[in-house]
Records
---
Amino acid sequence: MKKGHYGTSNLHRHLLKCLKRNEVKQDDEEEKESSMLQNKITQEKFREMIAEAIIKHNLPFSFVEYEGIRKVFSYLNSDVKHISRNTSKADVLKLYKKEKDDVRNKLKSIPGRICLTSDLWTSVTSEGYICLTAHYVDENWKLKNIILNFCHMPPPHTGTLLSEKIYSFLEEWGIKKKIFSITLDNASNNDNCQDFIKQKLNARGLLLYDGIFFHVRCDAHILNLIVQEGLKVIDDSVIKIRETMKYLKGSESRMCRFDECAKIIGMKRTKGLRLDVCTRWNATYDMIDSAMRYQSVLNRLAEEDANFKHCPSRDEWNRVERITRFLKPFNDITTLFSGTEYLTANLYFQGVSQIELLLLEEMESQDSFISNMAEQMKVKFDKYWDCYSVVLACAIVLDPRYKLDYVDFIFKKIEPIEHIAEMKVESIETTLYKLFSEYEHPKSMATTNVSSCVGRSSYTSGAVDDPDDDEDKQDDMKMLRKLANLSYNLQV
């Protein structure tokens, strides 16, 4: 508080002389000292924090043996006991086991079912890896996702071996009874993979509606295949732009020359130049879009740099500009489908219908180049989306903004034969009622599931003697109580 001509001098003198205030201040200091003593780091806590730091920052286990690090630890606490790399490794594995148990318990306690996604990668060393991710809504209605497994997957990547690997993951986490669906890309081995997993889960009656909702194709991957088909029409132009990006990014001096050309033209490079990844079409779109942004700069560079031989011609630039406008809606929908912070199931039907309407419109375009491209994409579209995902169509019916009327409207708009559109709408409505009945009558469903498991005991090679059966029965009773509560809430 300031002293001066502000009318606060009297209050200032009171603060200096107030005995009660000094007592409170002294109590606060004592409490702070006591708190510091209580928070004194123990050796156990120290090792746990070191393990967390190693994981978080990808440090080597030998980090704890660095002379400089040990000096820092000793300076902060002279009583610290230094550990070896083997001890730090054991601490990391101990922390991993603890976190894994926490995740397993969390997955068992969630009120609903779990949706899975899985994919394969090939590293730069040509080693295959598989990833399995769980997606669910927790008790607070928050969307959560957890990477359950990321491990080496040696070849061959056949459907049988993939299914055995993924099924072993489900057994490891104890979530076989909670699975709702799995999303995979559109490779043929994945079709076989999901078939084998579905057969195993259905043999124990663990899937809703006999697994009709189990397999969900990756919409973003389908979009990638559709647009890649269209990009073949402008393949030469795309190759030139790709080679242009490689040429510029291959040398710092070339990028400096590019910046000089931008200054001469009066353009500032606010966004970088993109080089695409051949397996992701939206990366190709970003590359083309960035090239279009600096079209005048690239043309100027082609005039000054005799070694720059991949600059597109005027006609090719015009063609790329038209194709960029055409592909922008596809890029927007791909980005929408690829979101991880929000639900995407209810966005599927609307996005797919927008794509089909766009293709139908562009097929009638006066621009023969665009219409030819749209026709090729429509063929690929019909191949993959003729058998649309029923569960994702049901999702938009449950969205109060759209409901069944919207589905009926869209089918009648894109389906030339009226009775076929009506049949599709009726099929979705029937499926939705059957899905509801699975929850409305959980007791009969559970009875059917148990009897089906006993009936298939010879097929499942001793499933009756499965050590998990007692736990499964307890889970059945818990699920019955939850479903009974859900049925009551839906009725009222």
---
Amino acid sequence: MAPFRTLVCAVLILPGFAHAGDTGVGGQVVKAKSELRSLETEAARGAKGLLKSFTPQEYHALVTAAQDYASQVAGPDDRQFTSLSVTALSTAVASKRGLLEEVQASELRNVAPAASGPASEDVWEWPSLHKNYRILMEQAAKPNSGLFPITGPNYLARIVGPGTQAVPESLFQDCVCIGRRLAGNDQFCCTGVLVGKNVVVTAGHCYFCLGADSNTAVVHFGLDTSLVGRRVTGKAYRHQQYGENGLHNDIAVIVLDQLVTDIAPRRIATSSEVDRSSFIRAAGFGNTNYEGSIGFGLKRMVDVPMASVCCCREGDPAKLGCDKELELVAGFVGLGADSCRGDSGGPAYVLVGENAADDASWAVAAVTSRATKSSIRPCGDGGIYVRLDKFESFIRSVPGAQF
């Protein structure tokens, strides 16, 4: 896809952004470019290939510098803003972590084969997608925003992806890892979200790895499945029309064997709250590389711009592979920030309050289902999420569910 091949070339030839917008731009651009260059200089002094961590304050400085740079150069052009800020963030964070050469090679390997066809190119042209990405970046650049858009390097994180953050204990305790208990052993495979006293919602395609009709589903409450934590068993119920009549209906409910009294269930977002959202926060325990093969078991989160809030526009189902009025789509080809294998069934939150750092400011809009039809890689090029407001009657009808 031409725009992303161009973006990749920018990453490869312009670590300091010296050739972009050098004429006719103000002091803020120069300052932003200087800040980004200083990160590269710092990384160059470190041991090659050694992953360096950075504080939330440093992370915010990166986002702010990239947002300022892209805004000054692109002006009102939202599409150019997307391209410039994605490039700036990916390069700057890779530089700070001492991995600029590695991320360049990875970006070339993972994104350059963009023979993705007309569907991806059409999605890239959607004005609403770039508008939503810009809104996310502008909000994330505000002091103490608590938001985490993409940052790079792409191959190191995903819930997958750049911008991925480990979830602090104060946030999203309702996001759980789920699997099957077999012969005394717990085998985890997906993610879910607690929406009732004993009700966990997940993806319908996770049904068989939960043990299907048997009472063998197990839910892990905590941040890391490798650590001791509370685990509760239950029974899974899949939507009666899963995969029928040309629709996915990719949703299932686990009714737990005991009530959860010390963790607040997550409120399901109203239709109007979902419809007016410009981004989601995806959370899950899934893999962290774009091939979807490593990193399962640690709760992570990332903020992703909305591509289609309801799969309602003409051509959305054909181009994206989503179900009209039943699903939403977030992310796009080449972005990187995304959900991945193992995140299936995990919550896609929308911000309904003022403070993103406040757990109560988030409601759950959807659960992770699958990659978009326009995706090039298994992970990192956009995801489809099942809207819970469209299936709330099913969720509440499951036998034994308490709210």
